[in-house]
UniProtKB/TrEMBL annotation:
Cofactor info, note text: Binds 1 zinc ion.
Gene coding for it: nrdR
Protein name in UniProt: Transcriptional repressor NrdR
Keyword hit for Repressor: yes
Protein source organism: Ruminococcus intestinalis
Zinc finger annotations (unnamed) as residue ranges: 3-34
InterPro entries: ATP-cone_dom (IPR005144), NrdR-like_N (IPR055173), RNR_NrdR-like (IPR003796)
Length: 152
């Protein structure tokens, strides 16, 4: 860290404290050349995650949008808000840890369906019908048959 007084590039940390409810670390430093003290702050660099949509446009990942979609599929079903929050957190962590800076909407949809299938089959079918854009009753029945086959 460059000293603001003499521009020497080496200093030692004298004191470290958490600041802004743990969002930053405040460090008191002492220049090894001139001996003067100064303060620096260390923060986590947030790299936004982008969702690549079907039309190839990009938008920043929105946790609230994902939550709303899952809640819509789970409407009037025995799925708690806590279960939905767990799914959303798990999907968000998977997306941030498994991909660079971009994830496709299709990948998010698959992650949602994996989790919904384990929690509530009716919610899964509801979500799948919108996500997979079923064209007619036959494609809908194919998905239901897959689900029944997996249960056996």
């Amino acid at each position: 860290m460059k000293c603001p007084y003499c521009s020497f590039e080496e200093s030692k940390v004298v004191d470290s404290r958490s600041a802004d409810d743990g969002e930053r670390i405040r460090r008191r430093r002492e220049c090894l050349k001139c001996g003067k003290r100064f303060t620096t702050y260390e923060i986590i660099e947030n790299i936004p995650l982008y969702v690549v949509k079907r039309d190839k446009s990009r938008e920043v990942f929105d946790r609230n949008k994902l939550t709303a979609g899952i809640l819509r599929a789970c409407e009037k079903r025995p799925v708690s808000v806590e279960q939905v929050e767990e799914m959303v957190t798990d999907i968000e962590l998977t997306a941030q840890n498994g991909f660079e800076r971009e994830i496709t909407a299709e990948q998010i949809g698959e992650l949602v369906m994996e989790r919904l299938k384990k929690v509530d089959e009716v919610s899964y079918v509801r979500f799948a019908s919108v996500y997979r854009q079923f064209k007619d009753i036959n494609t809908f029945m194919e998905e239901l048959n897959k689900l029944l086959t997996e249960k056996k």
